[in-house]
Write a structure and sequence with these properties.
With about 500 residues, this protein is α+β, with helices and mostly antiparallel strands. Helix content is about 50%, strand content about 20%. It is built from 17 helices and 16 strands. A hairpin with an 8-residue loop joins strand 1 and strand 2. Helix 1 packs parallel to helix 6, helix 15 runs parallel beside helix 16 and helix 16 packs antiparallel against helix 17. The chain starts with 7 loop residues before the first helix and ends with a strand. The model has no long low-confidence stretch (mean pLDDT about 85).
Length: about 500
């Protein structure tokens, strides 16, 4: 049964219901429905609504919650209220926002500053009251109620509502701040847990306060095993611990920060005692109290390995270039160069004999012509060894067909006829040539197959055989050199050779 508004018992019951609702409501968004129902039911109002003042400059008040008494016919009015927006001074909520004082309207249908008058008339609503909710920044919203009958202003009720408005506003602000802080902490935790780099937080004594999942995986510890322990004893190698402790003590004492806010490469240690290279950045967290530091750690083992392989690859390329240069010098010296020297001597002698012995001079010229033809042939063969003429003239299709024809076992070739960049064609040709040479020498195969396809901007080259398998790509220099040639174009070379199952050499070469 609803009590009269001015009944002191009713006012105490309202205060008790509101305070109890605030204590039992865990979320800020649940406060308003609880408060609206408590007040509306005790005082017998038909409908209630809660409004909030937005933080953005120039924005308008909006309804954040509403309540209707059981059996109420004011559903349409509630819907209009939920979608309404009011500026300061506009309508009943805007009037309270502007003045900061409670307001009472005996009959909203007859009020000049009430935009929802037509909707209220249709719903049969007349009396209305609204009181402000207050927080640290002043008026943060308002709460309004409606009755079907006309009601005169009730000063004790308005005073009680004004007091409750301060409690409600402060409670909502506090809960919203707590929820925002909790959401921020959850976002931060989610970011830390999803980060690929290790994140370790330590205090001024060097003890671990927190670490993320990546750090657990990288260093081999569960967080519960290391939180509270000194970081130096956990992930710093023994030979670096004293330097780490001295540096931390110096920074905490206000001395020179030699490693803060810089990326440095150093050595880390896993739970099993193994050491590995890491990239470390340490920052100081801007918080009151003793210094706290965050370390961002990245395992650079793969990068270091790739750098070492790159250096080794470059060294191999230089060695191969030197060896090839020496081979060319030797071939030129022993072959075409000797013939050209002989050719020059023959021509000089013919010149001397031209007047005294023409027939002998003619014989020398014939001999010189033969030497010239042989030197030309040797130079042509030498050029083919560097880059086959058929590859230059016709591309991969005829060049690989020639390789297959020279083979000592049946070789099937499938290759597109389109032309590709010269470097790509050369890399693919030499991959096939080296792979087929290895098949002939070591595979003990009955047949081989060469397949070249182009897809997704790459040239896929595959040479397979049905031989004995067991090939080791690292055992010889041929495939290693080809791997360097393919890698120089941004591609990859791989060898699969299970014992007894044949060998497959695959190259992926970018061609765009």
């Amino acid at each position: 049964m609803a009590r009269q508004s001015s009944d002191p018992t009713a006012l105490l019951e309202i205060e008790h219901a509101v305070v109890r609702g605030l204590c039992e409501t865990p979320r800020a968004d649940d406060v308003y429905p609880t408060v609206l129902a408590a007040i509306g039911q005790v005082l017998g109002w038909e409908l209630g609504a809660a409004w909030e003042v937005p933080r953005q400059r120039g924005a308008r008040m909006h309804c954040v919650a509403s309540w209707r008494a059981p059996g109420s016919a004011a559903r349409d009015f509630e819907s209009i209220t939920r979608s309404a927006r009011f500026s300061s001074g506009e309508g009943l909520p805007g009037r309270v926002w502007a003045t900061g004082e409670p307001a009472w309207i005996v009959d909203v249908v007859a009020d000049d500053n009430y935009p929802r008058a037509d909707a209220a008339r249709k719903a049969g609503l007349h009396a209305a009251l609204c009181f402000p909710t207050r927080g640290a920044r002043g008026v943060v919203g308002g709460i309004e109620f409606y009755a079907r009958e006309l009601r005169d202003p009730d000063a004790p009720l308005l005073a009680t509502m004004a007091s409750l408005g301060r409690q409600i506003g402060q409670f909502v602000e506090r809960r919203r701040a707590e929820e925002a802080m909790e959401a921020s902490e959850q976002r931060l935790r989610a970011m830390l847990e999803s980060a690929l780099d290790c994140v370790v937080v330590i205090d001024h004594n060097g003890r671990i306060l927190d670490l993320n999942h990546a750090a657990e995986l990288t260093f081999g510890y569960a967080a519960t095993q290391v939180i509270g322990r000194e970081m130096a004893d956990v992930i710093v190698p023994p030979h670096l611990r004293d330097a780490h402790r001295r540096g931390l003590a110096r920074v905490v004492a206000g001395g020179e920060a030699r490693v803060l806010d810089r990326r440095i490469e150093i050595t880390g240690m896993r739970a099993d005692g193994s050491e590995f290279p890491v990239e470390l950045t340490i920052t100081r967290i801007a918080m009151p109290g003793p210094p706290t530091f965050t370390g961002y750690i990245r395992d650079i083992t793969d990068r270091k390995r790739a750098e070492e392989e790159l250096r080794a690859s470059r060294s191999r390329i230089v060695d191969a270039s030197d060896a090839e240069r020496r081979r060319l010098e030797r071939d030129l010296h022993d072959g075409a160069q000797q013939r050209l020297v002989t050719l020059g001597l023959s021509l000089r002698l013919a010149k001397l004999k031209l007047a005294s012995d023409p027939s002998y001079a003619a014989a020398l010229v014939e001999e010189a012509i033969d030497d010239l033809q042989q030197a030309t042939a040797e130079l042509r063969e030498l050029a083919r060894g560097i880059h086959p003429a058929v590859l230059t003239d016709g591309g991969l299709e005829p060049a690989l067909a020639v390789l297959a024809d020279r083979g000592t076992l049946p070789i099937t070739v499938a290759v597109p006829s389109e032309r590709l960049p010269a470097a790509v064609e050369a890399a693919a040709y030499f991959v096939v040539a080296e792979a087929l040479t290895n098949v002939a020498r070591y595979a003990q195969a009955r047949r081989a197959e060469v397949t070249v396809t182009r897809a997704n901007g790459n040239l896929h080259v595959e040479v397979s055989d049905d031989g004995r398998g067991g090939a080791d790509a690292a055992a010889g220099t041929g495939l290693t050199g080809l791997g360097d040639r393919v890698a120089a174009l941004g591609g990859e070379l791989s060898v699969s050779s299970p014992p007894g199952e044949g060998t497959v050499v695959t190259a992926e070469i970018p061609c765009e």
